[in-house]
What does this fold into?
Amino acid sequence: MSRQPSAEELARKAFTRTYVDDPQAGTLASDVWDDLLAYRVYGDENTAYPTQKNEALVKRFVELGSGPGDLVLDCFVGAGTTAAVAQKLGRRWIAADINKGAVQTTSKRLQTIIQNQIEASTQPQQATLCLGEDDQETPSPAALSFSVYRVNDYDLQVQHNEAVNLAVELVGIQRTKTDTFFDGTLGRRLVKIVPFNHPLTPLDLQLLQDELSARPDEGRDVTVVCLGKEIAVDAWLDEYNQHRPVNKIKVIELRTDQKYGKFFLHQPAQAQVSVERHNVNIVVDIEDFISPTIVERLEMDLPLFKAQIPDWRAMVDVVMIDTSYDGDVFNIVLSDVPERKDDLVEGRYELPAPDGKTTVAVKIIDMLGEEVLVTAQV
It folds into this structure.
């Protein structure tokens, strides 16, 4: 009976490095990669994202750590370089970012790459997708579609610093950067913004009371801005305010406040789409599109004017169509990605119709990365 190797022997074998003596097989990589211009991005690869890295550098990492079909995860996707390289190298990928601009940049970049891969697959010979280095063989794409998931409400579950900025802009708070406890003032009142990752609790109010007690000369009242509050908060405030001639506390709860609460009520985008079969073709006509979030953001930037968007296409970043949608996987048959920032999507499309009855899916992505999916049987 053969002896089973010990755990130590298995570990030693797993971490054994084998060096190639044949100089024709390649050169040994050093820990200084001076053959790559790590932070320079040129040509069509450049997305103008401030921290973008070039694809050749990321390609080396992806190839070292994975094989075709493997799953690559980038939790801070930025300009989408890792996802773009993974898509070109036949890897599956998951990309995440809290920045809507990063999600938008990455989505647009991947849609262009996938469209090029779809077009290349119809050619007699698979075209090489340049990654900045010579490729022996381009792996087949692991997938030719992807979805964008909003795993939480971006406007609510945000980093504290960004949450403070949102609340300051919404409520009209004057920042006081020299104060280590209070975030600013609202008229003659001090303002404390409670982090949005938890509701206002009596403990938060007790900490506020302790801070005021440490400032005996402070006579101003206080406004607390929060996202939700525990039931016990109202009773605590009633008891506190009854015995306080100064430093009274008022709460602005951003979910329910009549004046400010609507900022945090997410109204999904909507689209009016006509899908018809004309002989051997399918005609898709996007008649209208509205994104309440975009309109409200514009009205915040221009508070004296009612936001007017004469052409709905100005709110749309990408249109994608699947003429044989199975309800599970969205296979892109057409992707309308404007080449320049000032260009608009077409809005009307005519595509070859599959044989028999089919489900057509139209996916519209607005400038903030929100998706609308419309389906119709024809």
Notes: Helices lie at 7-14, 55-65, 81-88, 100-121, 160-171, 202-213, 232-242, 292-301. Confidence is low (pLDDT under 50) at residues 125-130, 154-158. The longest helix spans residues 100-121.
